[in-house]
Every structure is written in structure tokens, then in C-alpha cells.
Amino acid sequence: MGDFDAFGMIVWASLRTCGVRFYEPLKAQVLIATRDRNDVEPVQTNKDRARHEARNFVQGLVKR
Fold first, then answer.
1. Which residue of 8, 11, 41, 62 pairs with 22 in a disulfide if CB–CB is 3.0 to 4.6 A?
2. Residue 8 carries which DSSP code?
């Protein structure tokens, strides 16, 4: 199943998750395919982000 677009708004949020109310109901197959992808990246703290950037710099992965 390919990518799709849907519009909505965030109706609640906590530190690591949020809830979205979509303007149009999502079809069941789209919802299940999205859930099965599980490609959500965890939110990084500033310290984690700085550590990642420093590691990339030391390994020569930063493009100038």
C-alpha cells in the first residue's frame, strides 16, 4: 500500500505521543497499513541530538 495524505488536528499530546482527529474518516485498510509500517522515530532530547551530531562529525559524515 502506498503513501497517502490526510488532514486533521492534534487534539491531545503527552511527552511521547499525541492524538489526531482527522477531518475525514480514514479507510480501515489505510489505517491498518499505516499502523503496520511502524516507522515512527522516537523524539530525541537536545542531549541525544547533540550526541548524534557529534558522532557524525567525528566519523566524517557531516557535509560542508
1. 8
2. E
The per-residue pLDDT string of the chain (64 residues; one tens digit each, 9 = 90 and over) reads 457 888 999 999 988 788 999 999 999 988 888 777 766 666 678 888 888 889 988 988 877 6
Nearest of 48, 16, 19 to residue 8 by alpha carbon = 19
Q: Which residues contact 11 (CB under 8 A, 6 or more apart)?
A: 19, 20, 21
Give the Å distances, CA to CA, from 8 to 12, 21, 28, 35, 41.
12, 5, 17, 17, 20
